[in-house]
Amino acid sequence: MVLGTYKQIVHARSTDKQIQKISQDGGIATGLLCFALDEKIIDGAVVAGPSDEMWKPEPTVALSSDEILAAAGTKYTLSPNLWMVKEAVRQNGLEKAGIVTIPCQTMGLRKMQSYPIGVRFVADKIALDIGIFCTENFPFESLKTFITAKAGVNFDLVEKMDIGKGKFWVHTADDVISFPIKETHGYEQNGCKVCLDLVSELSDISTGSIGAPDNWSSVLTRTEPGETIFSQAVDAGLIETKPMDEGKFGLEMLTKLAKSKKEKAMKEIDQRKELGLPVPYKASSEKEDPLANV
Ligand SMILES: Cc1cc2nc3c(=O)[nH]c(=O)nc-3n(C[C@H](O)[C@H](O)[C@H](O)COP(=O)(O)OP(=O)(O)OC[C@H]3O[C@@H](n4cnc5c(N)ncnc54)[C@H](O)[C@@H]3O)c2cc1C
Ligand code: SF4
User: Fold this and answer.
1) Same domain membership, residue 246 and residue 127
2) What is the pLDDT of residues 225-265, one digit of tens each?
3) Are 82 and 101 in contact (CB under 8 A)?
4) Which of 48, 106, 153, 269 could make an S-S bridge to 101, C-beta 3.0–4.6 Å?
């Protein structure tokens, strides 16, 4: 199960024109959080909100649709959203919190829920986890450095960044520049090299652009709450769906990239183990090998 367990996999996008305009892909994260807030399925959400510095996110507890909208779009740097969960529950009094997580954070969240050491009565207040796909992430200074060097643009003029079709894309008001994604690998966080999860396998709903047409998202519903919320949003006409393309630019591509991420990470883990370096994954038995069932 290289994509983790899921109930359904589809292409989807928000039907809201404003969300379509400001979101990274199909606006699934923003659209679902706004819907869940309106329907009182959640009473707030932890998101990667804006800060004083462009493209540097600040984990934020959004209590209104406006605050959820303000966090739309991908920032290719660290936003320690889990750090904000305690504040969301203790300071903002959320009883049913939503959250957006990248795969490593999704794993952290599930660990918090399974072993709530230091977070008793906090982690179980998460009612909806939307996991977004992630191939790699960058320290903020690295991001600025390679955008300026490789795209040759002033970082302050960047209006959107994106990863897709094997390239890193930089949009300014009057230009779109791209360069091969492999040129960014030297700038990524070291931990990403041993990360096994592309698709937030443990989230309630996961979403990303891989395998989807432009401005649509690939969406996997994984848990009962995730499936219910997604179906309700579709029934309400706020999300539209179409069947997942099973071909080489659709499901095949998503599966291939998820598998390749696991294989590369396992190779790096084995190398680090040989050198006696610490690794996040210590099992060497077949049973615990994450690729054993691929
Ligand atoms: C570092 C990174 C790398 C990614 N790499 C890929 C990839 O290779 N392939 C792929 O298909 N998708 C990737 N994604 C996911 C993709 O860019 C979109 O975020 C996803 O498709 C959701 O789009 P949307 O239109 O539904 O989200 P939107 O409606 O635009 O909402 C985006 C949500 O993501 C949250 N968010 C933004 N930046 C961060 C962050 N740094 N950390 C945590 N939460 C954040 C915001 O709070 C917001 O709620 C990556 C995301 C990140 C953060
Ligand atoms: S590649 Fe993995 S470790 Fe790196 S930011 Fe993405 S989810 Fe986290």
Assistant:
1) yes
2) 999 999 999 999 999 999 999 999 999 999 999 999 999 99
3) yes
4) 106
